[in-house]
């Protein structure tokens, strides 16, 4: 059954698909009145719904049974140095499929690409599309890019398990760090750009309470490292 995003505020009065969601139903899927769909609000709620009528930009709904849904645990924040090309699009998509809670794009010393206007909105649209496709009912927050220095300055007080993927020789095996923290309910994962973090950035992360983790002897591409770490966190704690 097709899934559509209906913002939380639209559930209470006259629930209606509008904009891109209405056009997807009416133009792409050729939906008709009486057709059943699934709606979700991005905050963990989903329900069955019926289209009452159909126009290009306006699809009124009758909301049916609200279905049980649960956000994946632990809650994971991904702090991701923006990689080259379209790899950030891939990272956003796969992160949503792996139940990410929030994504903070970062500009580091070795970041090659400088995010232009509209990038954040594009990543948010990617996250929404991934939620619709994979059945994730919680829409991750995708923040506007920050410099590493500005972001890390607030992290010393951040709660939960804090991890930085690192090529440093004193980085600990990822598995051993996870096994030392059973029952983790919130984790922040910091992944660097092509060329890794600088020594100063790595030290700043360590000073803020991040554990340096090794992902093995093979040097992974940025997008592979991110997906590997998220999958490992899900495997260990969920």
UniProtKB/TrEMBL annotation:
UniProt xrefs under CDD domains: RsmE-like
Superkingdom as given in the UniProt entry: Bacteria
Protein name (Swiss-Prot/TrEMBL): Ribosomal RNA small subunit methyltransferase E
InterPro entries with a match to the protein in the record: Alpha/beta_knot_MTases, PUA-like_sf, RsmE, RsmE_MTase_dom, RsmE_PUA-like, tRNA_m1G_MTases_N
Pfam assignment, any one: PUA_4
Lineage: Bacteria, Pseudomonadati, Verrucomicrobiota, Verrucomicrobiia, Verrucomicrobiales
EC number(s) recorded for this UniProt protein: 2.1.1.193
Top enzyme category: transferase
UniProt similarity note: Belongs to the RNA methyltransferase RsmE family.
Span of domain Ribosomal RNA small subunit methyltransferase E methyltransferase: 72-233
Organism: Luteolibacter yonseiensis
Entry keyword set: Cytoplasm, Methyltransferase, rRNA processing, S-adenosyl-L-methionine, Transferase
Gene Ontology molecular functions: rRNA (uridine-N3-)-methyltransferase activity
Keyword Transmembrane helix: no
GO biological process, one term: rRNA base methylation
Ribosomal RNA small subunit methyltransferase E PUA-like domain: residues covered: 19-60
Main location: cytoplasm
A single GO cellular-component term on record: cytoplasm
Subcellular location(s) of the protein: Cytoplasm
Cited function: Specifically methylates the N3 position of the uracil ring of uridine 1498 (m3U1498) in 16S rRNA. Acts on the fully assembled 30S ribosomal subunit.
Annotated catalysed reactions: uridine(1498) in 16S rRNA + S-adenosyl-L-methionine = N(3)-methyluridine(1498) in 16S rRNA + S-adenosyl-L-homocysteine + H(+)
């Amino acid at each position: 059954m097709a899934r559509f995003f209906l913002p939380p505020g639209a559930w209470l009065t006259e629930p209606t698909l509008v904009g891109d969601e209405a056009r997807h139903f009416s133009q792409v899927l050729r939906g008709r009145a009486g057709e059943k769909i699934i709606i979700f609000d991005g905050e963990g709620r989903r329900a069955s719904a019926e289209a009452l009528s159909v126009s290009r930009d306006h699809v009124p709904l009758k909301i049916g049974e609200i279905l049980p849904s649960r956000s994946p645990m632990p809650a994971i924040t991904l702090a991701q140095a923006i990689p080259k090309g379209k790899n950030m699009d891939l990272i956003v998509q796969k992160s949503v499929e792996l139940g990410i809670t929030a994504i903070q794009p970062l500009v580091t010393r070795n970041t090659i690409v400088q995010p232009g206007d509209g990038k954040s909105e594009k990543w948010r649209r990617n996250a929404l599309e991934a939620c619709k496709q994979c059945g994730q009912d919680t829409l991750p927050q995708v923040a506007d890019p920050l410099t590493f220095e500005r972001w890390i300055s607030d992290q010393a007080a951040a709660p939960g398990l804090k991890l930085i993927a690192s090529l440093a020789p004193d980085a600990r095996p990822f598995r051993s760090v996870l096994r030392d923290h059973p029952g983790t309910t919130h984790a922040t994962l910091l992944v660097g750009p092509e060329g890794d973090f600088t020594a100063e950035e790595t030290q700043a992360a360590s000073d803020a309470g991040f554990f340096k983790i090794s992902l093995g002897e093979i040097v992974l591409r940025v997008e592979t490292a991110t997906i590997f770490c998220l999958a490992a966190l899900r495997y260990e704690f969920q």
